[in-house]
């Protein structure tokens, strides 16, 4: 028996050591963007760690698997595996670096699903975890810089160039302190961010400089940021009508897909090439690339809609579980309080009897209190049911772009308009209706879809609305609006 125990322990030790070795190798593939290698090695880590229930190996294995599916734009699988990696809480308490990376990866998934509030929340969580560390490793600093980089990307998407630049600078400040063999990846991606910023500002020379810097960092290495830097240079030359140079960089970007598969980037590249061909009047080739773009884009868009719904439903389920637990705790507390009240009431009745007071009156008072409590609970449940039904109704009216949407919305949320006009008396009905959509949690793309407007138009509406209420760029509009309206 002792020999068997020693043999089993030795087997577990060997499995753990082999898993650690695989983790070290997979980390290099992960940092350098070699997705297919990450997939193969992560599956080996999980299989090996499951035999001995090695928590570190399981958490890292699922994390790397989540990162692989993220690169493939398969966000449902990525979110599932990232949450699986988070389940090993005992191990994660000892490895804050890894815990922060999982939160950051979840933030990246929600970012590409355009669930910006959820994305912001997870990036902030990652940064908070690392803020508590006294001695930060190069990996910690890379995680922090990546979080700031992606926060800048959020603000780029919602057309907030000042906030975008602010987070790019925070990222760059951290990168200057890192002395790490593979920091070329984050430096290259950072330069890509600056290139995109300056191109949007129409500062051509600065944009070209940063795109070229990005390519210098990557050299012969493959990475999604390298592809996007090549596309950035293609976009830059296309904007100057230097079509031959633009095509040259688009072609270089295409070659990087020989050994990689990043469908979201590839569809965007096909779209840019189609636009370039249209500008040159080459209709046949334009149609060819347009068809390639539509094929990938439509498949990706359909999948992203489903995965966005999945992500939202998953968050809602988690919130419901949390809410149910809070309700359970509340009931437990209420039960204790009621029990104490009954004991106190019984004691009072005993004292009243002993001192020859009127017992019947005390009993009637007690019964009345219990009945009133029951009636209050019934009214509360009835009010909750009515509110849920009204909420479902106004959501459907909003999706249908029904003219009666805002009228019905005011009936359900009567203090909304009055509080909005306190912010700015000059709000137009259309702006109040737009604010209602934001309050209900609709994304920019969803508002554009349901109101039959361009995404760019909705982004401008959002920007103008923030200006009218003097809301700073760091604050999430929907969360701020909710807190403001719902505050007593």
UniProtKB/TrEMBL annotation:
Transmembrane segments: 331-352
GO molecular function: DNA binding
Key words, A-Z: Coiled coil, Membrane, TPR repeat, Transmembrane, Transmembrane helix
TPR repeats: 227-260
GO-annotated biological processes: regulation of DNA-templated transcription
Listed name of the protein: Uncharacterized protein
InterPro entries (alphabetical): Sig_transdc_resp-reg_C-effctor (IPR016032), TPR-like_helical_dom_sf (IPR011990), TPR_rpt (IPR019734), WH-like_DNA-bd_sf (IPR036388)
Coiled-coil ranges (or none): 366-400
Domain of life of the source: Bacteria
Matching Pfam families: TPR_12 (PF13424)
């Amino acid at each position: 028996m002792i020999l068997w125990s020693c043999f089993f322990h030795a087997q577990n030790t060997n499995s753990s050591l082999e898993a650690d070795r695989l983790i070290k190798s997979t980390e290099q593939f992960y940092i350098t963007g070699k997705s297919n290698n990450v997939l193969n090695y992560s599956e080996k880590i999980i299989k090996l760690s499951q035999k001995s229930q090695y928590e570190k190996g399981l958490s890292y294995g699922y994390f790397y698997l989540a990162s692989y599916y993220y690169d493939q734009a398969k966000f449902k699988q990525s979110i599932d595996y990232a949450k699986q990696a988070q389940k090993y809480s005992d191990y994660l308490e000892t490895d804050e670096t890894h815990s922060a990376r999982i939160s950051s990866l979840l933030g990246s998934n929600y970012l590409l699903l355009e669930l910006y509030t959820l994305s912001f929340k997870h990036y902030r969580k990652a940064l908070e975890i690392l803020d508590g560390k006294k001695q930060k490793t190069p990996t910690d600093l890379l995680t922090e810089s990546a979080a700031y980089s992606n926060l800048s990307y959020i603000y780029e998407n919602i057309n907030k160039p000042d906030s975008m630049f602010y987070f790019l600078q925070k990222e760059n400040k951290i990168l200057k302190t890192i002395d790490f063999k593979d920091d070329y990846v984050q430096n290259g991606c950072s330069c890509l961010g600056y290139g995109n910023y300056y191109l949007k500002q129409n500062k051509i020379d600065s944009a070209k400089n940063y795109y070229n810097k990005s390519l210098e960092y990557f050299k012969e290495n493959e990475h999604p940021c390298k592809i996007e830097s090549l596309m950035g240079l293609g976009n830059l030359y296309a904007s100057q009508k230097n079509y031959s140079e633009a095509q040259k960089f688009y072609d270089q970007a295409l070659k990087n897909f020989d050994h990689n598969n990043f469908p979201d980037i590839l569809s965007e590249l096909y779209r840019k090439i189609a636009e370039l061909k249209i500008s040159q009047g080459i209709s046949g080739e334009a149609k060819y690339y347009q068809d390639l773009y539509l094929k990938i884009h439509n498949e990706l868009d359909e999948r992203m809609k489903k995965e966005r719904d999945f992500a939202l439903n998953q968050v809602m389920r988690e919130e419901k579980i949390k809410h149910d637990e809070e309700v359970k705790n509340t009931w437990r507390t209420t039960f204790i309080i009621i029990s104490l009240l009954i004991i106190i009431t019984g004691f009072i009745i005993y004292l009243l009897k002993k001192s020859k007071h009127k017992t019947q009156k005390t009993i009637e008072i007690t019964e009345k209190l219990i009945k009133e409590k029951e009636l209050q609970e019934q009214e509360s449940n009835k009010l909750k049911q009515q509110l849920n039904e009204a909420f479902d109704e106004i959501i459907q009216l909003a999706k249908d772009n029904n003219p009666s949407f805002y009228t019905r919305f005011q009936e359900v949320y009567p203090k909304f308009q009055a509080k909005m006009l306190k912010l700015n008396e000059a709000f137009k009905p259309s702006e109040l209706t737009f604010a209602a959509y934001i309050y209900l949690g609709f994304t920019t793309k969803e508002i554009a879809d349901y109101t039959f407007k361009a995404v760019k138009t909705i982004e401008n509406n959002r920007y103008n609305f923030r200006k009218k209420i003097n809301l700073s760029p760091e604050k999430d509009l929907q969360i701020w609006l909710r807190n403001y309206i719902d505050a007593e």
